[in-house]
Amino acid sequence: MGRLVVVSNRVGPLKDTGRAGGLAVALVDALMETGGLWFGWSGNVSEEGSFGQMKTQKTRSVQMAQVDMTQADYDAFYAGYANRTLWPVLHYRLDLADFDHRFEQGYRYVNDRFATRLKPLIQDDDVIWVHDYHFLTFAASLRAMDVNNPLAFFLHIPFPAPEILAALPNAAGIVRAMLSYDLVGFQTERDASNFRRFVIEELGGVDEGDGHVRVNGRVVIAKAYAIGIDADAFSKFPMTPEARKNMTRLEKLLGGRQQIIGVDRIDYSKGLPERFKAFERLLEDYPENRGRVSMMQVAPPSRSELDAYIDIRRALDELTGHVNGRFSDLDWTPIRFMTRSFPRRVLAGIYRVSRVGLVTPLRDGMNLVAKEYVAAQRAEDPGVLVLSRFAGAAERMPEAVIVNPHSAEEVAAGLQRAITMPLEERRNRWQIMFDRLCQEDAAAWSRSIMEDVKTIRRN
Ligand code: GDG
Asked: Which residue spans adopt a coiled-coil conformation according to this UniProt entry (predicted)?
């Protein structure tokens, strides 16, 4: 295979710093193997925008190239179409979507501009791998500039049923643009089949079997490739000095009580208010947990300039106050809500001392926190994952306690089951999930996509 070129909204970090997430880890290995190039937005808004100078940097054989955006680009492309239109629609939240036609124009414009800047850097045998909902139309832009390299795409978030997507103005135009890719990858079988169904029902495509669809004389691969984590590395994090120091602090505070842990960016897709209410329900329905079980929620703020995100944060502050006011005792506070982030190693330590990992998104592409929680447990005495059926992770983790996040009653019952689960059952469930996480890890994920890229035939 030739050189790998990765395109994503944000570039890096390359090092395994405290903040590097699963995506960076998976991509960096693949990039290093081929001496690749990583291209995207610099994170800066400037007057010249994408017409300005390209920032380049080479670290450990990987070339990075970044361009700016103008404020107008940022408003229409990033804060507009990507995060006010596509994010809610693709998460089945039509009620929160903002359909402003100027957003789509700005989005296509930025995709064109970024493609124009990338084009001179492309070599003949490069494989170009584009990431996520910011760049649905990027391949169409490149093809219009006569780029003939293999183009692969991976969508990190859900792809909704055609009945939902049809509400997006010009949905057919957007999906048609996606068909300029040779391969379109999704997190789950459900997402991949939703996409193929749209192509077949709305665009006259023909199912060719094995995840291939034929449309307008071309065959496109549209399959599921569930993203994994570096399970081996993550399982070792709790043993690092940084993690141990913080685990001791936390264990001292807990004083033998049990902890439920949640870790999510503040986002309406994550089901946080529903989760807080389910925890309140646990204390109501199973009062023996009062004074004995607490919930910690780590919630780094994101996209905080958007109204929907401001509203959710306010709702969570209120719910925390409500539950704590109602149930707190002299030596016990039910909910600890922290709108901050922790280094990854510390996070792994927090997972390990928590008896229950609570992951209850209303919709989620995959959800890496579910996988990280399991990877961080000790084989001798593992905690229990309580997982929403609407997280992509649920498709490959049926040994978790699977719940419907919309039902406070059901989540409370799931929590009670997790809290009281006998050791042997906890071990059995954990071992199966951990083995699978090690097998289907981040490296396996990018490898399986690259294997399918090799089957692409361009004429
Ligand atoms: C999108 C899709 C899909 C969180 N808090 C801290 C912290 N994190 C890390 C977690 C995890 C990552 O951020 C979050 O990943 P998720 O998968 O849970 O969710 P999204 O951010 O919405 O990601 C999702 C993913 O893309 C990958 O394809 O799974 O469905 O929505 O790695 O650990 N990291 C640190 N401190 C924190 O406080 N260091």
From this structure: none
Q: What is the Å distance from ligand 1's center to 278 Cα?
A: 22
* Ligand 1 atom closest to Cα of residue 19: 39
Measure 224 CA to ligand 1 centroid, in angstroms. 19
CB neighbours of residue 199 within 10 Å: 25
Q: Which of 73, 182, 264, 364 is catalytic?
A: 364
Looking at residue 446, its amino acid is S
Name the residue with higher pLDDT: 34 or 387: 387
Question: Each residue of 84-120: b (16+ CB within 10 Å) or e?
Answer: bbbbbbbbbbeebbeeeeebbebbbbbbbbbbebbee
Task: Kindly report the pTM of this predicted structure.
Answer: 0.96
Q: How many CA atoms lie within 13 A of 392 on its CB side?
A: 26
State pLDDT tens for residues 100-126: 999 999 999 999 999 999 999 999 999
Choose, from 156, 191, 230, 267, the residue flagged as catalytic.
156
* 73 in active site: no
387 phi-psi bin (left φ>0, alpha ψ -120 to 50, beta other)? beta
The set of protein residues with a Cβ atom below 6 angstroms from ligand 1 is 18-19, 21-23, 156-157, 227, 263, 265, 298, 300, 341-344, 347, 364-369, 372
